[in-house]
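Researcher: We're teaching a course module on how sequence relates to structure. For the next exercise, students receive a sequence and then see the predicted structure as tokens, so they can try to spot secondary structure elements on their own. Here is the exercise chain.
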Amino acid sequence: MFKVLLVDDEVYVRKGLLELIPWESLKLSIVGEANNGAEALDMITQLEPDLVITDIRMPILDGLDLIRSVNEHAGLDLIFIIISGFHDFKYAQQALRYGVHDYILKPIDEEEMTAALRKLSYAMGRKRIAALTNEDLTTSAIMEALVQENLQAEDAEPYAAALGLEGKSGFLYAVTEIHAGVRDKPATVKQFQEALHSLEEGGAGIPVFEQQPGTFGILLSTDGITGGHGGLMLHLEQLRAALSERLDTGLSLYAGDPVDTLDHVHRSYAEANEAARHKYAEHTGVIMYSDIKDKPLYVFDMSPVLANQLIMQLEEGNKKDYQETVNRMFRLFHEQRFTPQAVAGSLSRCMTGIIGVMKEMDGNEEEILRLKELAERRHGHWNLQMLEEHFLQAIQEAAEYIARLRKEHCLGGIKLVKRYIDTRYRENISLKSIAAEFYMNAVYLGRLFRKTYGIYFNDYLLELRIQEAKKLLRQSDLRMYEIAGRVGFQNADYFVTQFEKLEQISPSEYRNMLIDKE
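Model: And here is the predicted structure for the students to work with:
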């Protein structure tokens, strides 16, 4: 398998490529996704991909600058493919100067992209097989050559000698997937090999091939394993348990069918990876191809009805309901045998809808980006339980943020209402008329006003009007009915009654008191 890094600031483009292109059949494995060139540069150093597919226009560090930076570092032998929405010849010309393998325009044509990648994968495979004559040949390189489907029967003997498998007549390829936690670093090839070497029976002689970080292919000899299918399953389960104990982490093992000769190992390899696609559909730590080969898988996203229901429950802040919906979703993934890609697509649909709600509520871009990154965090090596726990954590954080946004909106709305009252109290307004003006329920508005300002709406309005009336009594000789009209009272007698209620003195007495003082 050749390792591929996708680089594009548009997450939908990256996810589209993940879904559209048959990566496994092309002997390509996506080992990482980057939002920009700077992030990609760090990931290239860590992941050491064989191929980088990048956009040109990106923030921080664009695609051409990324390629130039990589070319300036000695020892980095990478192949680049550019995808771009820009038809300008100068971009393609500059890309060719940097030695870019191909320049593909958006929107991406699935057939064109697949054909280009198939041709490139074949060329890389030929190059790698040619390197098998090198004396410094590594076990990983031999293993990778074995699974490329172009090993001839007459070439099997030198491969067997190089792998220490001379005289063996049966082989089985298995994929070992290490379920590292969110904060755990994936196990390295060295760590995995050390765990194998520590096994009591023949662990040191098992060839290892790193398919992608955290996922290792192993080539087992079936000589000496008796008991047919049951004996083979027991052997694999014991191997899985021993490795899990030594690595101190969860681990699953997916096995192809045994083959007689090394030139057929590619078949067992394909079957093992097909078995891995059933990881969410089975509850066992060892999945054998012979047990699942006739079981269908669900390859589409889940119904949008369930996703919309989850989003609505998050908006309503009903924790018990959205937790139950998440549980139902994951039961569905297991019972209907969703592929890992279908599960990822379904969860992506949910998170896209949730993030859309946050944007509609004018959520903070940094907070939205943080939750987006949390949702997009790579989870390819997790089992279904780990994935459910992570997803539930992500949507709980989203629910809490949506609740904060709703509270801020309510406070912002009530401030507008108060400002409206402060400027219009002289008019004939009421709680009902204001609620209609702001498209709110009158009862809800009254409760919200009291909760926010610690006073009933009517009391606040009366206080504003009486304070203005006192000002007019002090500064003018207007008659009582004139003052009443100016401060929003339709009836002079009612004005007098309310004034006395609040000030414990009539308006006339208040004015006369001022005159007497003078």
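Model: If you want an answer key for the exercise: The mean pLDDT is 86. DSSP finds 22 helices and ten strands in the chain.
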